[in-house]
Amino acid sequence: MNSKDLSSLWIGRDDSIEGEDSKRWHQIIRFGTPAEDSIAIIGMPCDVGVSLNQGRAGAALGPNHIRKILANLPLHRKISLFDLGNISVTDSLVYNQQQLIDQVYHTLKLKAFPIVLGGGHSLAYGSWRGLLKYLQSFDTQPQIGIINFDAHFDLRIANQANSGTPFFQIAQYCKNITVPFNYLCLGINQYGNTRSLFNKARRLNVQYILDKDMNQMDDNFKILKKFIDENDYIYTTFCMDSLPAWQAPGVSAPNCFGVDLNTFEPYLESIACSGKLQLFDVAEVNPKYDIDNITAKTAARIISTICEYKI
Fold first, then answer.
1. Is this model's pTM higher than 0.85 or not?
2. CA angle 160, 165, 166 (to 5 degrees)
3. Measured by CB atoms within 10 angstroms of the end CB, which terminus of the chain is less buried, N or C?
């Protein structure tokens, strides 16, 4: 999308009569090459992987849907914000993931902080590969910790990559280049993953916390802190189907149980405050099934929390 098309999405209230502290996202958004230390929004309008995974298509419309909600959010800290537009996509998931690898890499090279808007969760492979490519330009053995807020492990094996395979793809890539696969999954639904997936998670030394246990904050924060401490860089990805259907109805696979955002938010704040977060993305916002923009509003709150607390 060109800047003219993008600007039509970034509209909202103007309370400037009340002074500088009344600004909203749409009033500071810029387009083009991101500045150093800025936040750079990248859209990944691809749900090919969702369709291949037999999910509900429509997440390709997610990035622009989220932008419209982000536009009207009030600012509570001074940030530099750029919108880099949407990745050019085709029917080839491999091609689309490669485009995202390149965009994330170039954004990080400019010392900006990428926030990727999905799109299906197959974007995670492209996001992670882009981060790895950047880190390998100055660190021969980057220790990346992946923190995934998700009801599903997404460790499945398939004839074609899809939205259920990205973290297995990452695990295989790590194995091939002898890089550690460090993966922590928060909010796993016991009844949304087969026994073989749990077994595979254990074989791959995946750490996880079940959705029903996410409110055990003291124990869980010890796990989270240890994971962050053991890794030099953190990549965090948030799949909207980790939330209950009443809070995220517009997703590919609605969750009858889930973990509400009130429980998840302290974890997000802790990750953002760690000083190690390099990259963040949100996946599986599907406007075709959203109700009163609830899913997009929830995604926007998640993104704004990251921006508010990131150091």
1. yes
2. 115
3. C
Of 253, 256, 255, 259, nearest to 302 by C-alpha is: 259
pLDDT digits (tens, 9 = 90+) for 288-311: 999 999 999 999 999 999 999 998
297 in Cβ contact with 306 (< 8 Å): no
Q: What tens digit of pLDDT does each residue of 139-187 get?
A: 999 999 999 999 999 999 998 898 999 999 999 999 999 999 999 999 9
- Helix, strand, coil distribution of the chain in percent, nearest 5: 45, 15, 40
Q: Dig out the tokens for 218 from the structure.
A: 């003291």
Radius of gyration in angstroms for the set of CA atoms belonging to the chain, rounded to a whole number: 18
Q: Determine the pLDDT at residue 4.
A: 60
Strand partners, 144: 233
31 CB neighbour count, 10 Å cutoff: 16
d(CA 41, CA 256): 30
Number of Cβ within a 10 Å radius of residue 39: 20
pLDDT the model gives residue 2: 54
Enumerate long-range contacts of 130-133, CB under 8 Å, 24 or more apart: 130/100, 130/101, 130/102, 130/103, 130/104, 130/105, 130/279, 131/104, 131/105, 131/233, 131/235, 131/278, 131/279, 132/179, 133/101, 133/105
